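Handout for the seminar on molecular recognition.
Each group receives one record of this type.
Step one: identify the two inputs.
Step two: read the structure output and locate the region that could contact FE2/S2 (inorganic) cluster.
Step three: write two sentences on what you found, then compare them with the reference statements printed after the record.
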Amino acid sequence: MAELTVIGKPVTRVDVNEKVTGEAIYGYDLVLPNMLYGKTLFSLKAHARIKNINTEKAKKLPGVVTVVTAEDAPWTHGESIKDKPFLAQGKVRYIGEPVAAVAAEDEDIAQAAVKLIEVEYEDLPVYTEPEEACKPGCVAIHEDFAKYRKVDFIVGSHLPNVAEHFKLRTGDVEIGFKQSDLVVEERYFVPIIQHAAMEPHSAHAQFDKESGRLTIWVANDAPFRALHEITESLNMPKEKIRFINPLQGGGFGSKGGLKVEPIAVALAFHTNGRPVRVKFNREETFISTLTRHEAVVYCKSGVKKDGTLMAREMTIYWGAGAYAEKSPTVCIRGSLPAPGPYRIPHVKVDGYAVYTNKPVAGSYRGYGIPQGAWACEQQMDEIAKRLGMDPVEIRMKNIFVEGDVSYWGERLHAVGLKETLIKATEAVDWGKATEAPRPGVKIGKGFACIQKPTRSPTTSNAGVMVNSKGEVTVLAGTVEIGQGCNTILSQVAAEELKVPMEKVFMHPLDTDIIPYDASTTSSRSTYHMGNAVRRAAIHARQQITEAAGPMLEANVQDLDFGDGKVFLKDQPQMALPIGEVVKRKLGINGIVRGDGSYTYEIGKDLDLETGHSDHASAFYMYATQAAEVAVDEESGRVRLLRMSAAHDVGKAINPLNCVAQIEGGVAMGIGSALHEEMVVDKTGKVRNPSFLDYHLVTSLDVPKMIPIIVECPEPEGPYGAKGLGEPGLAPTPAAIGNAVADALGVRVYDLPLKPENVYWAIQNKRKKDAA
Amino acid sequence: MKKKIQLTLNGKSTSIEVPNHRLLLDLLRDEIGLTGTKEGCGTGDCGACTVYLNGKPVNSCLVLSGELDGADIVTIEGLKIGPELHPVQKAFIQDGGAQCGYCTPGMLMMSKALLDENPNPTEEEIRYALSGNLCRCTGYAKIIQAVQDAAVMIRNKHVQ
Ligand code: FES
Ligand code: FES
């Protein structure tokens, strides 16, 4: 490979100037001419039949333009299962479900009108525990489940309220347990948490009767998925719907799918062509957008005396909340690798995505990996302890290495796991004890390893345009949610065309103009869109080369690119700026456009009976994180002293950005480990829907972080790159959990590791020891 | 009830008619059109809406417009020094202090307020000063680095 000029360099973010000056316009900031203001009436009942809705008083309030209910918007949506109404139809299934909406001349009027809507409910049984909701005899939260439109991997279940059942079957776990010298079994719990992107949710919509076109402005991280869902729901041709993406203030998975969008769309059909804006405030964002799946994980492992893993059996109840959203795929892709990145001959996993009467769970950075890791990685340490082995040693004995065949039947390559394990543990001086600062405080170390697949197969398309000034515009459907994709993709285009970064621009995202991309999810963008942009840039470069040949009186194979110019390899002074080539070929207004597409072609769907696939993922991300903690035995308070995070990224296209992604991920992981939980009571009510009561990590909660980049190149990836965004938080809670167990000699099985959970674990151990 | 109030906003004197109960945050964003000041919670818990009111950083989502007659307000749009970026802005760019950027205006306002009072803060002092400003993207590491670097830039300028 020719020498890289900008790939691998810590380039400054391309979008940062407008962000530090306040000029950047986010979805929440957007004002459209002649816009109306929308407000939503949310259900106050977790599970109830709607007997009557009276909107008369609201409609009569001066300044109200329209009030809509399911009668005006009789549609449903859902990626895998079309179970979610735009506005509640006949019943409500969680507190926070949108029931009706108002559009008015200003926000105050809209809010006043919402208060005038009267709804009569008839209560139904409320299910808040996933493990309980699927017990035989439970009332169906979705009576019409069988009738819903679904994708074909939804297999259903004989149990009530199960939206999806994933099965993994390898070998025979009963034989594996018989052959084992030690069998360990435990129940683990991960509560609901929320993305809490700093920008709350909002959507704008406008329906133009004359053209019949519906336009939606929303900071959605998968505009093409959203477009497809709206198309299917409304039965409108795709050409009639347009999504425009303003800037997005964080997402972490929360801003895919449809949340505020259906409300804005429902209103837009009744405003005589005026655009309508619907904003959720923070409380509404907490209760009515998306959450991360709570999970009850049963994990049982069998090992030989020497630490060789023989069998692992897991049953996972994923709390889907009231609607399926991403639950089927979280259930599949979270359950599949849950037994961990290890060679295990006998594996059995059952994952159930279970409906409850709680807010809807969706995709969340990590996509099911943190829940599985919380169980599996703690159990690895428990096994090591009982066998008298070092936790590093037992991992070394079993972890995936190059060429291993995984328990789902795939031959693995580009496995950088071992290196992450060595580096992360070294960074916290593994094996060396730290002295406790005072009596009553215990110091401990722990770590955890993970593997993460990416959504496969998927496609990214891109365009790269070069104008007569030598400026390069990239058309890519990847959404800049803060992860830095605009910088990474600009680097790719700059590299292939050998132009300076200042010459590269990212075209704003508009589904009318930008070619199709699957989604900005699953850490797929650097790899998939990176490949697509690279191909598009190479295509543009070919066209410029061919045009430049005759201009420089040279054979095309003798030409090279550098410094924004095309030149003769052996006579570099014979050169033309690439813009000049475009101008001479196509005129001053001319534009050369290259197109590129990338699909991970060999991606295969999993076998529904065994969960097996010989190509389940385009690539795998591997990571190890290690923590050192100080635990106060009296209060149960856990303080993090340091935290290392080694991530195999394949190739760091921008090391500065990689470090930023790791640090941000770890901080999020720390929150989920130590204090974050959305508390939902037995009636289905969220008790802490504010930043006062839902504790996000602050600058005081984050310890010294040691980010470590490991590069085990993925041959198919652009320049060897894989992905990085999601794994950052995946091993964190388990690493901290293991450190706490190391400090105290007692394990906490339920997240978060808040003082009371740790305190009671200590007390219970004391009682047991005394008895 | 609407009331006419007189303000100095980013150095310019303005008068505006506004309902008493309108929050300063909404006044800035919705009525004046300065959307650089962000809304993260609306309840005083995130710091995204930080502006200077009479020289002191405040959460603008907690201030009612009715109290503002005669006030001097500076928002992120007024942070530049003439055409030049303020050192905290430069340092955030250089160090990667902004990712999605939604917390950034509030962070910058709070960082400058800290450095105005304490030109040579320790890491602990920075962490403490920014503890009311939530960021979900960065894990704060690069933000803290940027404030340290901005402090150096400001001090060097004074030495010159
Ligand atoms: S919006 Fe004012 S503190 Fe959050
Ligand atoms: S940069 Fe996204 S919230 Fe701070």
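Reference statements: The mean pLDDT of chain B is 96. The longest strand of chain B covers residues 2-9.
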